[in-house]
Design brief:
By secondary structure, the protein is an alpha+beta fold. The protein is built from 22 helices and 25 strands. It is globular, with a radius of gyration of 30 Å. InterPro entries: Topo_IA (IPR000380), Topo_IA_2 (IPR003601), Topo_IA_AS (IPR023406), Topo_IA_cen (IPR013497), Topo_IA_cen_sub1 (IPR013824), Topo_IA_cen_sub2 (IPR013825), Topo_IA_cen_sub3 (IPR013826), Topo_IA_core_domain (IPR023405).
Length: 721
Amino acid sequence: MKSLVIAEKPSVGRDIARVLRCSRNLNGALEGDNYVVTWGLGHLVTLADPEEYDAKYKEWKMEHLPMLPQKFELVVIKQTGKQYQVVKTQLHRGDVSEVIIATDAGREGELVARWILEKAGNKKPVKRLWISSVTDKAIREGFTHLKAGKEYENLYQAAATRAESDWIVGMNATRALTCKYNASLSCGRVQTPTLAMIAKREEDIKKFIPVPYYGLIGKVNGMTLTWRDAKTQSSTSYDKNRTEELLKKLQGKEGVVKEVGTVLKKSYSPGLYDLTELQREANTRYDFSAKETLNIMQRLYENHKVLTYPRTDSRYLTTDIVGTIKERLEAISTGPYKKLAAMLTRKPIVTNSSFIDNQKVSDHHAIIPTEQYVNLENMSSDERKIYDMVVRRFLAVLYPPYEYEEATVKVLVEGEEFTAKGKITKVLGYKEVYENSSEENESLPKLSKNEILKPVIFEKTEGKTKPPAPFTEATLLSAMENPVNFLEQKDKEFIKTLGETGGLGTVATRADIIEKLFNSFLMEKRGKDIFITSKGKQLLKLVPEDLKKPELTASLEMKLARVAKGSLKKQELMNEMTAYTREIVEEIKKNEGNFKHDNLTNKKCPVCGKNMLSVNGKNSKMLVCQDRECGHRETIARTSNARCPVCHKKMELAGQGENQTFTCSCGHKEKLAAFQERRKKEGAGVSKKDVAKYMNQIEKEEQAPLNTAFADAFAKIKLDK
């Protein structure tokens, strides 16, 4: 008898099949003597659309709401139906005696497999492969330590509860808003509070009133002394008169050295990466979106097999990983990392609780290199960048701390205290791992206590308090991870829960939430900064108050964690979510607000003839038909990867056909044909193939559905006017 192994994606399935020696191709599966390996294409099965429960739901009518299925039905996703049939056929083979779930080891991965098994009517015993990397070694070890499927039953129940509760809240609230205001308005328990945080930040910036502040410095012997208030220890004051009086009092006076001291200080490497920290830093450093970073990580994990599982919320390793560190260092000993890794492999590995802690790892440990030997030439430029970040962080935590000597001088002038600080590097430590890591030393002149300093030249410094900065993807990820500042009630239990559950969304879903908010035109980018659109502002006025608060997600995640541990029944939580859904639908029905398109243009839709809306996509300007049933869209202009020959910024490509023109914010303009000719002469940059690929991408985006989460549902609606 054989075991059927179900992986999440073909690439991982083929890797497992190779390790298990399954080489006979079954078209969608691979077979060997003891195993049959097949795979999903991500989800093959999903929750049914409302019309699957009752034909009346094909029309979106307010009187049909709320829609609350007694039992949720599963349907096969049409686009991947062929692969589902392959899995089902293999599952029901007479010579298959058990199933081994080998999907991604996490809540969503569990759901992928369990829904397939449930839809296919599986009655065979289930085992679970739970691994953090897909190297041959990890797969082999994983198969020698298979777990019983029932150990993950509660994890599956938590995953199904999350999916079903999001269905009833999202589907009902979205239909209610759409019917009420005849506009494409979607909302959900994670995306709506995320949008509300952006709106609040904009409001804070608008309301901000800059306040001037002042300080004093004194210059003597090439050293700058900074005044410090004796009472508050602050180096600035909001009292201009006091600062000016002090300046008058001190001018021409000499200073007396009150104290000279040096202290040896240490600074340790930042912790290892979890997904959110990696996405945050990649956005700041390379302007990668959260989704781009996750996609690159997925390739490095699945295809190159050089990094561990990306969707982790831990920045720590477990003690059992310590024994594999040398092997991982040997695997990365190539190119720029060879000398750095060799420094560590020559001596015993030193670990500490700053990155090794079993209690701080739930499903998966931090992202680190695998034991797979690396060929950097096989990676794209973007893959190299992310790989480099992870490898250097891994090396850094294994290096000793950076040590420096800090010198402090305190000087008294007419009873007022001034200080100066200097720094001398003693041991470069972990900073050696980073390129351009030489430290700038700032030494102070040699001084002794009670020494007189003169002439001291004093001057007033001034500045203004700054408003909070608009969100970027990096700072939005931080706010989603820790939305405590946006809680209306500073409830200790909620704050604790948000800390434990990782805030709004999960490491696996935050990138998709951000993309969805862009794709729904609820927020837009200006440079790197994110701003809410008029549509987003209006939506926030129309949705129920509770849906805008992070507290809802905190509460649900806290309860989902209890379902995963088995201390709360799925049905109890679903009863709560059903009652909540009834409340929000009723609230939307009673709302007396209105929605107005304030971005209408004079351009008529070529499909239905209605006026089109002007919208800003994430990296493009578009015209979109106002009729959500029509859904036609056109890209007017898009930020390209082509660089301006004058200022080297990314240029915008606008127009159609032969009239396509690159324009830059510095004023430079050139036709696409001229640009291609110039690049040919320069012998570098964007090739014809690149341009063709780029144009195909635009064409695909123009044909893509407007609403990501409920695209299929919106495509089918016939709204009763």
